Amino acid sequence: MNGAVTPRWIALWPALMLGLFFLVPFGIMISVSFAQRDAGGFYQPGFELASYARFLAPFFARVLGVSLAVSLGAAAICVLLAFPFTVFLASMSRKVQTRVLVVLLSVLSLSEVIIGFSLSTLLSQTAGIGNLFYWLGLIEAPRAYTPSLFALMTGLCYLGFPFAVLVLYAPVSRLDPEVVEAARTMGASAPRAFMGVVVPMLRGAIVGAFILVFVFTLGSYLLPQLLGRPEHWTLSVHITDQAIYQANLPFAAAMSVFLMLVAMALVGLSSLAARDGGAA
Amino acid sequence: MFNRRQFLSTTAGTAVMTLAAPAILRAAGTPLKVGTYGGYFQDSFDKFIFPDFTAETGIEIQSIGEPTGEAWLVQLGQAARAGQAPADVSMMAQVARIKGERSGLWAKLDDGAMKNLGNLPEHFVHRYEDGAFYGTGAVSWYVTLVTNTTTYPEAPTSWQALWAPEQKDRLGLMSLASNSFLLEITATTYFGGTDILDTEEGILQVMAKLGELKPNVRLWYRDEGQFQQALETGEIPMGEYYHDVTGLAASQGKPVRSTFPDEGAVLDSGSWVVSRASKALDQAQIFIDYMAQPAIQAKLSRNVGTAPTVARDLTDLTDEEFAAVSSDKTPILPKAVLYVDKADWVSQKWSELVTG
To answer: Membrane-spanning residues where (chain A) (predicted)?
Structure first.
C-alpha cells in the first residue's frame, strides 16, 4: 500500500462516530422506553411495556395520523414548488444561480424560533397581512391567519423548501438539455416532454427531496405549537410535553421510538418504490 | 412539574450545581447551603436576603442555583441515599415538595424552636401525616385574569368572562393542566370550590366545562413571552397570566391590566424544605424561621415582586405596594396533590378533552 492511497481503516472513523452519536443515544432511548415510570421521581430501570401500551390509544393514533399527514403534506408541497423552481433556476446564468442559492442557503441559518415568531407576526391581526388586504379593500376587517393549518404549513414549507431545492439542484443542472430537445423533435409537446422524460429521469432526486423534507418536518415541535391549533399538534409536541413538563421519560421515549419506526418504514417504502419505478 | 420561576435559568442552575458538588465533601461547620431556583430568584436572594441574614445571625450562606423542580428532587433523593445533601435548605415547587414528602426525603424540624411560624397561614406550614413539621411556604405569586385595556375598557370581574361567547378566538391560556391551574379555576367558578377535583368523576365534569372554552382559545401557550407580546398588542386581548409581570408591563405604559376576579386568583408558590441528609438542621431552622418574618416577606415583595406568605396586616406594605403583588381576596389554591397522585391520568384526559 503506498501513501497516496487512502487507508481503508479511515472508514472506521465515520462508523465510530455514527455508533457513538447515533446508535448509543438510540440504544439509551430504547432502554428508557421500557423503563418503569416512577411517579415520585424519574424512572427505574426495568422492562415493562406500559409506555407502549399507553400509546396504543385512539387519541395517539389520531395524533400520529396528524403528524404524518402534516409532514407528508409539507413534503409534497415543497417538492411540487421546488421542482419547477429548480428546473427554471438551472436554465439561468451561473451568476444568477449562485446568488439564488446563496439566498436559499441563508434561509437555513434561521432558527425555527425566528421563523415561527416572524410568521405569527406576519399573519397576525394587529400587524399582519390582513391589514394589507383590508387596505386594498379585499376584506371587510383585518383578521388573523394564525394559528391555523395554513400558517403551520407555510412555516414548515419555509423550512423545507431550501432542502428540497438543494437536493434537486445538482441532478437537475446536470440534466442534458438535448434530451428534452430530442423529445420535442420526436413530436412531444412541452408538458409531455417534461412529464414523460424529465420527471422520470429525475425520479430518484424527487423521492430523495420528498423524504428529506418529510423526515425534517416530522421532528418539528416548535412550529406546530406556535402556528397550529391544538388539533394540529404533532406527536413531537406531545413527546416534548411528556419529556419536559410531565417528567415521563419512558413514555416520551416510547413515543419517539414508535415515531421513528413509522418514519423509517415510510422512508423504506418510498425508496423501494423509487427503485422499482426507476428499473421499470 | 416545570414552572416558569424555575424555567428562568435552568442551565445556570445546572452549572452552579456541578460546581457546588465538591462542597458536599466538606466537613460540617461550613456555610448553610440554600438552594433557590437558578436565575432571577437566586440573584435576588443573593442581593437582598442572604447578606442581611448573615449579618443578623452570623450564619454564612452558600447560595445554590437549582435546576427544574423534578430534576432537583431526583438529585436530592439520590444524594440523600448516599448520606449527602447538595443543599441543606431547598426551595421546592409544590408538586416536588409533596413527592419528597411521600418518600420521606424532608428532615423533620422542631416547630417549637421557630417563633415566627405563627405568622404563616395553615397552607404554608407543611407537615407529614403524623403531624411532624418539615417546611414552610417560601415565596408565592398570583396567576390572574388579564386583559388588554384598549379592547376591554371595562375590567372583567369574574373568571366567567372567559366563557362568554363574544370572547370567541380571543383567549390565551397556559397549555398544561399542571401549570395553568384551569381545573382549580373552573372548579371554583362553577362548582363551588376545588373539592370536586377529589374524584375522577368530578375532574371529568370540570374538564367538560373547560371543554366549552375551546372555541374561545386562540393560543394555548407554553412560552410566556409569546402570550405577553400578543396581550400587549391586543392580538390576544384576554387570558391568564402572572400578576406581577402584568403590573410591571402596565407601569411601563403597556395597555394591559391584571384583575383579581371575584372567585379569587390562583396563588402558586414555592416552599422551603430541608434534606434529611443535612447536617445543619439547627441553622436551617433559623433560616426558615427568619424567612417567615413579616419584615422579610415585605422586603421580598418590594424587591423581588413576590406576594407575602404572611397575612397582610402583619407587614408594613403600603396599599400600593401590596396591590402590586397581591390581593385581599381569598386565593384559589392549586391542588398540587392532583398532579402527584393522578399526574398521568390528568395529563392524558387534559390532552383528550381540553386542548385536544
So the answer is: 59-88, 100-124, 144-172, 193-223, 243-267
